[in-house]
Amino acid sequence: MLTILQKEFNAFLNSPVAYVVLGVFLIATGLFVWVFPDSSVLDYGYADLQTLFNLAPWIFLFLIPAITMRTFAEEKKAGTIELLLTRPLTDGQIIGGKYLACLLLALLALVPTLLYYYSVYKLGNPEGNIDSAATVGSYVGLALLAAVFAAIGVLASALTRDQIIAFLVAVVGCFLIYSGFDSLASVLEGSAAYYVGQLGIAAHYRDLSKGLVDSRDLVYFFSVVAVALQATRLVLRSRNW
User: Which helix (H) or strand (E) holds 68?
Assistant: First the structure.
């Protein structure tokens, strides 16, 4: 699995995909956090990074499917999938290696944004006037969100040999699990609205953004990742049916 992880990650770094993803993410977040007057931290007057954490999920909604769309679809189109699957590797090792490479690239995009935290920390009045617990929780939430989106993207790529279709399926899947249940809950009332809302990512992500790292939220994210990767495994096994 580590060999596949290294191979896939190096393939990303040797192609424009990694640099486009990093560039688009950092430019978009930088403009909204520091430049655009309606969302700029400098004009907002509060020492927090809520703009970043509100915007990043929507950017990830498109960027992570762009990363994952090639994982299996490219192998199928090139005819190398059978060669890969006949190697002395389990399906779990193949899926795990490709998935972790995609997730690592997505998490790499978050690393430069730590400069945003440092800048706001220094600019606060008094210095350090920022809710660090909420910021850490938000970063944990973004990392887990990226993990879920990457798992859905890998599953979408395993379903087709066309990268564009894999991208579109992944975007729709990520959108539904991030915002779909929340939208459905908004038209319901009482306990039904609460339980439907808990099925989506948005409610759990909001809890983490408050600095509340609850075990129930962690179990939710890890469960969704496990289900998506297991579904990917079943798709690959279907070649033997």
Answer: helix 50-68
- What's the one-letter identity of residue 59? I
Instruction: Say how far apart CA 30 and CA 91 lie, in whole Å.
Output: 39
pLDDT tens digits along 103-134: 999 999 899 999 999 988 888 778 878 888 88
d(CA 103, CA 38): 31
Instruction: For CA atoms 164, 169, 173, 176, give the dihedral sign.
Output: positive
pLDDT higher than 90, residue 173: yes
What the block records as the tokens of 235 is 């798709």
Integer Cα distance of 62 and 57 in angstroms:
9
When pLDDT is cut at 50, 70 and 90, the band that residue 241 belongs to is very low
User: What is the identity of the amino acid at 215?
Assistant: S
The token duo for 224 is 């969704």
Bond prior to 126 in cis (omega within 30° of 0): yes
Cα dihedral: 122, 207, 103, 98 (round 10)? 170
Domain ranges of the chain: 1-238
Please answer whether residues 40 and 34 qualify as being in contact, where contact means their C-beta atoms are separated by less than 8 angstroms: yes
pLDDT digits (tens, 9 = 90+) for 20-74: 888 888 898 888 888 887 788 877 777 788 888 889 999 999 999 999 998 888 8
Q: What are phi and psi of 181, to 5 degrees?
A: -65, -35
